[in-house]
Write a structure and sequence with these properties.
about 425 residues, five-stranded antiparallel beta sheet, four-stranded antiparallel beta sheet
């Protein structure tokens, strides 16, 4: 063991780091730099992940291959202890707990052979060419859920560049998905055209429940805490409420076209913040009683909210990004070109989507605002590794790094880059 951290505790974290992009803490990074054993584990896991991600053609496995692999794996695994035989004390105490069997037990040649065999046993999933009109994208950590505004309201789960599952949500009207939020193993999708919020389970993919929302939903926020799990919504005509619970009227409006259905909802520091873009307001509500505690006039048309280092980031569709303290003080303003209406944030960067055909990068710690053109960006979500997934309407899904460089494109032609 190097330092104060137990190597056994780090093993599972390294697996999540390699597989899902979960960041390492400062203490974990310090231990990794000083521990050759953990460095070797990380190198092994990285090589294994790259090998597993290799794109292999679909091939029919030869007869008896499955039995041979299972027999070989069983031979490599240490034998299970016989409960009838008392355990013998170790001749020498170990300095750290035993690691998982497979990194230590499999030689490089065995891993290579096993991976080659798995290529036969694991058929290639369909490339993500079934994203007819992506409108909302939600990261679930391991996967990405894409909701499309096509006739059937197609929901697609992607893992990397592969389709894991797909279904059609249907609806009386052609769905118009405006926003999605994750809560545990569920994703909640706002469908403004059908006045509902869908509760979706992604593994296996299925719609668990449909919540009716009066006059349509313009914004969503999900939270899980001591008071239980809640999903808050902002209605098209000014209602604010909890799915399946109480609601209040923040304002009385006549409604709006589907293309203009947009507002932000966010629970932060014990307050529920809601934008009302028709009046230029940011409202703070009691999250339990839904009573309005404060109204802040920001002007413009604020439409989306994100948390950032204890403050709020407020996106104004008229071309501003504001940093606002929980008590309502504007402490910084970034001017942005165009009319962006969705955005997402990693630790240092905000990326904004403008349906007119532009993605905007705002460096939150300093530097110039920059842009790249796109066809019809409808939504953007931050992925666990800090990159951004963009639902490009009618085109497919793109993954951008923090510099707005496209690292992956999934569309009707398959993986183009």
């Amino acid at each position: 063991m190097a330092g104060l951290m137990n190597c056994g505790d780090l093993t599972e974290t390294l697996e999540r780091h390699v597989q899902f992009g979960v960041p390492l803490s400062a203490a974990e990074q310090a231990h990794l730099q000083a521990c050759p054993d953990c460095q070797a584990d990380l190198a092994f896991l990285s090589d294994l992940q790259l090998a597993l991600l290799e794109d292999v053609p679909e091939v029919t496995p030869p007869p008896g291959l499955r039995a041979a692999i299972l027999a070989q794996a069983g031979a490599a695994r240490p034998p299970l202890a016989d409960p009838a035989v008392p355990a013998q004390p170790s001749a020498r105490p170990t300095a750290r707990p035993a690691r998982r069997w497979w990194p230590a037990a499999l030689s490089a040649a065995a891993v290579t052979g096993l991976l080659a065999s798995l290529a036969f046993l694991t058929p290639s999933s369909g490339v993500a060419g079934v994203l007819p009109d992506p409108a909302v994208v939600v990261s679930t950590g391991r996967d990405v859920l894409v909701a499309s505004n096509d006739q059937g309201g197609t929901l697609t789960v992607l893992r990397g560049d592969r389709v894991q599952a797909s279904l059609t949500a249907g609806g009386t009207q052609t769905p118009w998905f405006t926003e999605g939020v994750r809560l545990g193993d569920r994703v909640f999708l706002a469908d403004a055209a059908n006045d509902r919020v869908l509760e979706v389970q992604t593994e296996p993919l299925q719609v668990r429940r449909s919540y009716a929302v009066p006059d349509g939903v313009a914004g969503l926020s999900a939270v899980s805490g001591p008071g239980g799990a809640r999903v808050y919504f902002k209605g098209v005509r000014g209602e604010v409420g909890v799915l399946g619970g109480a609601q209040v009227t923040l304002a009385h409006e006549d409604g709006m076209p589907l293309a203009d259905v947009m507002d932000g909802v966010l629970l932060l520091g014990g307050q529920l913040f809601v934008t009302h873009h028709l009046s230029g307001e940011l409202c703070a509500l009691n999250p339990d009683t839904l009573s309005v505690q404060r109204r802040v006039i920001l002007g413009g048309m604020p439409v989306a909210l994100e948390a950032y280092r204890g403050d709020l980031l407020v996106l104004d569709v008229n071309g501003r990004l504001l940093r606002v303290t929980p008590d309502g003080r504007v402490v910084r303003t970034w001017a942005v070109p165009g009319h962006p209406d969705k955005f997402s944030v990693n630790d240092t960067t905000a990326v904004l989507s403008d349906r007119a055909g532009m993605m905007t990068r705002v460096p939150l710690t300093g530097g110039p605002v920059s842009q790249v053109p796109m066809k019809h960006p409808m939504d953007v979500a931050t992925l666990p590794d800090g990159t951004f997934a963009v639902a490009d309407g009618g085109q497919g899904l793109r993954v951008l790094d923090s510099g707005l460089h496209t690292t992956l494109t999934l569309n009707a032609a398959g993986q183009s880059r």
